[in-house]
Write a structure and sequence with these properties.
Shape of chain B: globular
CATH architecture of chain B: Alpha-Beta Complex
Number of helices of chain A: 3
Number of helices of chain B: 16
Largest sheet of chain B: 11 strands, mixed
Number of domains of chain B: 1
CATH class of chain B: Alpha Beta
Oligomer: heterodimer
Strand content of chain B: 5-15%
CATH topology of chain B: Amidase signature (AS) enzymes
Number of strands of chain A: 2
Strand content of chain A: under 5%
CATH superfamily of chain B: Amidase signature (AS) domain
Largest interface: A-B, 48 and 61 residues
Distance between the termini of chain B: 17 Å
Order of helices and strands of chain B: HHEHEHEHEHEEHEHHEHHHHEHHEEH
Helix content of chain B: 25-40%
Structural class of chain A: mainly alpha
């Protein structure tokens, strides 16, 4: 089984250091081995019905800006704050 | 004399109506018990500081006779992945350790409107991922029956609280058995409703196509009272269904056809569990039920499909935790990419990371056809097999878990723990209602649960059959 742990971690936005890498590889291999022998069902379809969506209508928010920012780790001028995303 | 906290919701309701006790007295007794068992069992993460106010409000409702329901003045514990306005909701994760929801989940709104008293938020596996309530940051939940053993998971705190008198009723969530299995381990009743019958609005998502909010009670009628308050259509949940689920609880074992899936009973289960289940089936047969052998071949592969689908959905759902809007934020990130990675790496525990990695793999380019799509097709086939089986029976019986307990001291291989979910995940994938009801005990005194599964949206028959079993031979009151 070819499992590229670094690539999966990059996609999942997780850091895996070299010490953990082997252990995680072994666990991933164990899990993937468990789930990999699903029967071939190539002629069958997945018949999940679609969801009935409500109209996408704009309406006033029931929450204030302060309530929505209450749990933010860092805010600035009533906005979420993040590290600089463009280089100077 | 029996303490108030050891009584059922029905008994307390009766006493409250007759003014034999007040909601405040009931709460005080429950809190006293909760505090006395907390060090041993570790049921709670956060107590509700407003519970006394809620009890006083319930007493006002009872005195005025206005809006009184079966739950008015009844202390209820809530799993810590169900949003409670102003009350910390952590999912037992460092990621949400300081998170205070700005809104109530729909089920909480319904409990409050019914006059229920919320005791606090219960301990669980981190983000509900686990089966022993031992993956969260607040420590493991211990089984009230015996120290050194798990209360089950992932809703172990809710189950242990309801079983020990640290709450009268409790809410949990069930993605692959997380209400039914701890109910079985703790010797109480746990109900997982049809997908769509209880709103998921405000339930912090693990795997959205599988997550359901379930109810715990000491017996079937208590569990039914709680479910009856929380179920119903909700426009805020796009998967909510417009069906009327309420019905009167009836003992309907006589003439009920109980399906016995041969693939389930061919699977490994301990002798003790097998003995308890066989005995329960004999009791039901004596009470007029008819046992019918049915076949659901895809249950053998259900665990594989479940872990692919649930992990895939988890990897997508948990992508929202990026350290920006809420949740843990790393202190030493120099750019936005590092902020995401470090915040997630520091904030999530080992089991959550494992599942995110598995889900990311199953959805990644080159692998999604072999894994995710095959799992989704197997899920469809499983649903068709259940439909066929329900042509020949009204209810399907099965164990809840292969063993009566999980010891904290024995090492468990990861995939063995996953595979042990074989009895609960098939009905999760098929979105069916299912209940766990005590039916006996192991040699070591651990309770064993019988699982009864119904047709989709036929939650009433599940309750009625469980009620019939409880009256004719269940073990309620023996623990």
């Amino acid at each position: 089984m070819d499992i590229n742990i670094k690539r999966i971690a990059e996609l999942a936005k997780l850091e895996i250091n070299e010490d953990e890498s082997q252990k995680i590889f072994a666990e991933m291999a164990e899990m993937i081995n468990m789930v990999s022998d699903l029967p071939e069902l190539c002629n069958e379809q997945c018949d999940t019905p679609g969801m009935e969506l409500r109209e996408d209508e704009v309406c006033p928010s029931v929450y204030s800006r302060d309530e929505l920012l209450m749990n933010a780790p860092e805010t600035y001028n009533g906005c979420f704050s993040v590290p600089r995303t463009v280089k100077q | 004399m029996m303490s108030l906290c050891d009584k059922t919701a029905a008994e307390l309701h009766d006493m409250l109506m007759k003014r034999q006790c007040s909601a405040k007295e009931v709460l005080e007794d429950v809190v006293k018990r909760a505090e006395s068992v907390q060090r041993k069992l570790n049921c709670y993460i956060t107590y509700n500081e407003n519970s006394l106010k809620q009890a006083e409000e319930a007493d006002r409702m009872l005195a005025a006779g206005e809006g009184v329901t079966m739950l008015t003045g009844i202390p209820i514990a809530v799993k810590d992945n169900i949003s409670t306005k102003g009350l910390r909701t952590t999912c037992a994760s460092k990621m949400l350790e300081k998170y205070i929801p700005p809104y109530d989940a729909t089920v909480i709104e319904r409990l409050k409107a019914a006059g229920a008293v919320i005791t606090g938020k219960t301990n669980m596996d981190e983000f509900a991922m686990g089966s022993a309530s031992d993956t969260g940051i607040f420590g493991r939940v211990v089984n009230p029956i015996k120290e050194g053993f798990s209360a089950g998971g992932s809703s172990g705190g809710s189950a242990a609280a309801a079983a020990s008198g640290a709450a009268v009723l409790a809410l949990g969530s069930d993605t692959g058995g997380s209400v039914r299995q701890p109910a079985s381990f703790c010797g109480i009743v746990g109900f997982c409703p049809s997908y769509g019958s209880v709103s998921r609005y405000g339930l912090i998502a693990f795997a959205s196509s599988l997550d359901r909010i379930g109810s715990f009670g000491k017996n079937v009628s208590d569990t039914y009272f709680l479910h009856n308050i929380i179920n119903g259509y909700d426009a805020k949940d796009v998967t909510s269904v417009r069906k009327n689920f309420s019905s009167e609880l009836k003992d309907t074992l006589n003439g009920t056809r109980i399906g016995i899936p041969k693939e389930i009973f061919d699977s490994y289960m301990s002798e003790e569990v097998e003995g308890c289940i066989s005995n329960a089936l004999r009791i039901m047969e004596k009470s007029g039920a008819k046992l019918v052998t049915v076949s659901i071949p895809s249950v053998r592969d259900a665990v594989k499909a479940y872990y692919i689908i649930s992990s895939a959905e988890a990897s997508s759902n948990l992508a929202r935790y990026d350290g920006v809007r809420y949740g843990h934020r790393s202190a030493d990130a120099s750019d936005i990419s590092e902020l995401y990675k470090k915040s997630r790496t520091e904030g999530f525990g080992v089991e959550v990371k494992r599942r995110i990695m598995l889900g990311t793999f199953a959805l990644s380019e080159g692998y999604s056809d072999a894994y995710y799509k095959r799992a989704a097709v197997l899920r469809s086939r499983l649903c068709r097999e259940y439909d066929e089986a329900f042509q020949h029976c009204d209810i399907i019986a099965s164990p809840v878990y292969p063993d009566a307990s999980i010891s904290f001291s024995e090492p468990h291989k990861l995939t063995d723990l996953y595979s042990a979910d074989i009895f609960t995940v098939p009905s999760s994938l098929a979105e069916l209602p299912a209940i766990s009801i005590p039916c006996g005990k192991s040699n070591d005194g651990f309770p064993v649960g019988l699982q009864l599964i119904g047709r989709k949206y036929d939650d009433g028959t599940v309750f009625n059959t469980a009620y019939g079993f409880e009256l004719s031979g269940g073990t309620y009151g023996q623990y």
